[in-house]
């Protein structure tokens, strides 16, 4: 078994010990000769290495010179006109002028750089390339990203990344392409290289090889579309069989309103994105949560509200068993239980039981009021149910049937007398009223299957819409102040008469039985109880089967009806051009993360991360924490008592870099043990997905009532993101984000602090923004600032909100869309942490330190390169429609303003570029004189081709 590799002096030493040397390579032969080398062989080998280095150097210089030459030609009019397609019918033309000199760059620029004709200086540059290793390529990347014709004091974004904007485009299946996507795509290539190097036919002889084989098997089972299509819907059928019950006809008012030319209104897309942003923010912070101005209403105090709702015991048991069965497989329905930290209790690390409302197959509750979407959704549900019904094992020839669940070893006997084939209907089957219980059953057993499924789908969609209407708006649901409503288990049990909560909990066999359940929206309990009481069993059955199909459609073959229907709905909801083929590699890599993410993380860390990088990342974070800690007593609006409490919280912050230690990413044996219960089969992708879900759900339930393992993360090592967890007091930075342009071990300190340091300072500042400041040093939801400091903070926060509310983008209709400064306030405040990254970098320098200069960038000062490195973090191309949706829902400001707005408030930036008085105010008025300025601030700006939709999210 391989052991963790100790730290070495090699900058690129892999963190995890595993030999991937090519035995036939030149370097392997030189470093590990089978016999002693002669002196002549050693000299020749050394000469070969020097020659290779020189060749690499000249290639890098040539590439850099070519970039500059293109810009020079553009400045002379050879290629000066750029046509930007805004929509299919409107275009805009702007002139881009670029030169190879620094002429119009910063006011008061430093000395001129080396001359290409000076052989001595050229040789010095070559030697610096050799000495700095990877710095030449990094310098070329920076040079390529710049537009040196833009004035950084007026439009820093265009200056720092204008070249990158011109030389990149958005992939057809996406709505946005940014530096985060660049890194993620590069990380995927690394993982694909690893996967391709694994021999899946070899019998594993170690934990390492066993883990690698699981990666290979999961990925290949996902990529084998021919096998998935051959199997078809067969693996799904046993699951559907468990849920099938009776059904009936229905008429719906939205039928006929769907049209192929329909496009989802931007307001609806905005609402669905808002729901997702709030869901994430509830766990990782960053949202400006409203503080309650009054006491919460105790909705469960009056038991009389549910006394009249007393479903028969048999039905309650059946619903309970079904919900437990679905939830154990990751399928949401009726109500949803989560295991989360008790943020409002005495110890936020104790994992408690939370009860949430149900979500449906459409992105948010507003979609259920849009007739064309409901029409489409009903046809999708009908298509899924028809496909399932055509393959179900239910048959009137068998009055009873046993359903064997191989994953939980459950044996369930379902009454099936009188069921017509191929899908069960009401046992009367003749339309006779059975006392009001099932008044809408089909009038004939001989009705065509698609017609019967159409009727059932209509009623399922109507039922789902009622559930959505009963739920809270996301701003309420995920607000920690309003969502924290703990009640004794017995009180919740009485409020949900259709669910036997003790029996439900026993299904998951938690080690600790909970005393309380935190109800996120108490009114939902009464509403859902009434809805279930009024709904026939056959509709519940159709609803459960639909939720199951929606959850697992992506794990089926692309020729199955269920997969096709899910894809049809996805194309409309996400604005994907009809018939666009999915990127199967991306799809399978995403599934790979979800199934064996930590094993994949180990492979990524070995290939792309080092012990030195981990140590340096921790040092950078700690230096920023110290800078923040030291500044707190000197903040004018914070009184001494609050400053002391804030320092105490800063000292308690736990930084985590690279990878988790539970499971121990450095230990293949630990990873093998972590996934010991997960059986992976190379020819059973659906089974791999299902078994993985069962294992992870069981693992989560075992944490109930226990303190959280502080070595666990909510992200995998390969993830390109970072987060601050308010109840955990942690700032976390996976190895996936410690990659260029955010970080490189070979970079000089000013580049590292300007990019990764800015990310670290952003997450740290979240701990003290208007959301994070509501959690004390132990992660508890508490008021720990004095009233005077809170009032002063809110005044400053509103100042930031007003500033960003002046900023805007230009939508596809040519109208300005202003930022909602209150929505983005938490993230804008967090971005201001850049000041602490700058201070920490300056403090890290000793008097004798000579800054490492990058070839070709000698004319920029370290301070200027610090801010250029920061600006590159927000390189972004975005489609107009996507930009409009984001500005209405995303708690992050657009990338342009995350760069420009942050620097506007930082005196160190204006000093670094010697900006004249008034230039800061000019930067707040985009698009008034410089064409590139208008280009960069407009959403239209960021795209030069026809609009094909897609979506991604800004991290952080």
Automatic annotation (TrEMBL):
<feature type="domain" description="Peptidase M13 C-terminal">
    <location>
        <begin position="721"/>
        <end position="920"/>
    </location>
</feature>
<dbReference type="InterPro" id="IPR000718">
    <property type="entry name" value="Peptidase_M13"/>
</dbReference>
<keyword id="KW-0812">Transmembrane</keyword>
<dbReference type="InterPro" id="IPR042089">
    <property type="entry name" value="Peptidase_M13_dom_2"/>
</dbReference>
<keyword id="KW-0378">Hydrolase</keyword>
<protein>
    <recommendedName>
        <fullName>Endothelin-converting enzyme 1</fullName>
    </recommendedName>
</protein>
<dbReference type="Pfam" id="PF05649">
    <property type="entry name" value="Peptidase_M13_N"/>
</dbReference>
<feature type="transmembrane region" description="Helical">
    <location>
        <begin position="43"/>
        <end position="65"/>
    </location>
</feature>
<keyword id="KW-0482">Metalloprotease</keyword>
<feature type="region of interest" description="Disordered">
    <location>
        <begin position="419"/>
        <end position="449"/>
    </location>
</feature>
<dbReference type="InterPro" id="IPR018497">
    <property type="entry name" value="Peptidase_M13_C"/>
</dbReference>
<feature type="region of interest" description="Disordered">
    <location>
        <begin position="917"/>
        <end position="936"/>
    </location>
</feature>
<dbReference type="Pfam" id="PF01431">
    <property type="entry name" value="Peptidase_M13"/>
</dbReference>
<feature type="domain" description="Peptidase M13 N-terminal">
    <location>
        <begin position="313"/>
        <end position="660"/>
    </location>
</feature>
<keyword id="KW-1133">Transmembrane helix</keyword>
<comment type="similarity">
    <text>Belongs to the peptidase M13 family.</text>
</comment>
<feature type="compositionally biased region" description="Basic and acidic residues">
    <location>
        <begin position="434"/>
        <end position="449"/>
    </location>
</feature>
<dbReference type="GO" id="GO:0005886">
    <property type="term" value="C:plasma membrane"/>
</dbReference>
<keyword id="KW-0479">Metal-binding</keyword>
<keyword id="KW-0862">Zinc</keyword>
<feature type="domain" description="Peptidase M13 N-terminal">
    <location>
        <begin position="152"/>
        <end position="255"/>
    </location>
</feature>
<dbReference type="InterPro" id="IPR024079">
    <property type="entry name" value="MetalloPept_cat_dom_sf"/>
</dbReference>
<keyword id="KW-0645">Protease</keyword>
<feature type="region of interest" description="Disordered">
    <location>
        <begin position="1"/>
        <end position="22"/>
    </location>
</feature>
<dbReference type="GO" id="GO:0046872">
    <property type="term" value="F:metal ion binding"/>
</dbReference>
<keyword id="KW-0472">Membrane</keyword>
<dbReference type="InterPro" id="IPR008753">
    <property type="entry name" value="Peptidase_M13_N"/>
</dbReference>
<dbReference type="GO" id="GO:0004222">
    <property type="term" value="F:metalloendopeptidase activity"/>
</dbReference>
<dbReference type="GO" id="GO:0016485">
    <property type="term" value="P:protein processing"/>
</dbReference>
